[in-house]
């Protein structure tokens, strides 16, 4: 079974500051890892995913995440926050199987201060 | 039109009532899912279907049922709604497993309030 842990429920940064959202996973098999974003009154949108290969993954809107097996982590970063980044962010995990399903973390709300 | 359409967008219902949430998709995907989102709990899987003849329970299926009427349609029913089923409900589709193919496509959600 897989699970993800997102510590904290809310992160606030200033516009232009570094964004760091933490995600740790637990998995008995090599995991696939995902970050999704949810803007107000919208569904979830995929930011990026790690399946195999390069451990540094680049996604949309300037976000990236690095898979660190030794730390069981998949933290999301963005060098410079924009006001438009304010949203809820979910880390998710699946196994690599053909019938795999997503298991989500609790989510974390990002606020961006002017 | 959206790839995954959920109706209604918002619904208030009374305890004990039966309610159906509907999901339709134009993605042509075989796999469909129902999740509920609660503050501080993230999204949890209620039911999923890998094709029209395949229905599976997720981690929190008690109190819910589903119907896969066609490849494009997957409905979620609350037979007798209770207040702790107040949540935001999402439908999603995929063509393959979670990390394969084009991944999951989510609808915009149905906000359900049970009073």
- End-to-end distance of chain B: 32 Å
Unreliable segments of chain B (pLDDT under 50, ≥5 consecutive)?
A: none
Using DSSP, what is the number of strands of chain B?
11
The average pLDDT score of chain B comes to 94
Give the topology string of chain B: H per helix, E per strand: EEEEEEEEEEE
Q: By helix and strand content of chain A, what is the structural category? A: mainly beta
Q: Number of helical segments of chain A?
A: 0
Major sheet of chain A, described briefly?
A: 6 strands, mixed
Shape of chain B: globular
Biggest interface found? A-B, 27 and 25 residues
How many helix segments of chain B? Answer: 0
Helix and strand run of chain A:
EEEEEEEEEEEE
Structure commentary:
The complex is a heterodimer of chains A (114) and B (115). With 114 residues, chain A is mainly beta. Chain A contains no helices and twelve strands. In chain A, strands 2, 5, 6, 10, 11 and 12 form a six-stranded mixed β-sheet that branches. Chain A has a four-stranded antiparallel β-sheet with strand order 3-9-8-7, with no helix packed on it. The radius of gyration of chain A is 14 Å and the shape is globular. The N and C termini of chain A lie far apart (41 Å). The mean pLDDT of chain A is 94. The mean pLDDT of chain B is 94. The termini of chain B are far apart. Chain B has no helices and eleven strands. Chain B is globular, with a radius of gyration of 13 Å. Chain B is mainly beta and 115 residues long. Chain B has strands spanning 4-7, 10-13, 19-25, 31-38, 42-51, 54-57, 64-70, 73-78, 87-94, 105-106, 110-114. In chain B, a hairpin with a 3-residue loop joins strand 4 and strand 5. The interface between A and B is medium-sized, with 27 and 25 residues.
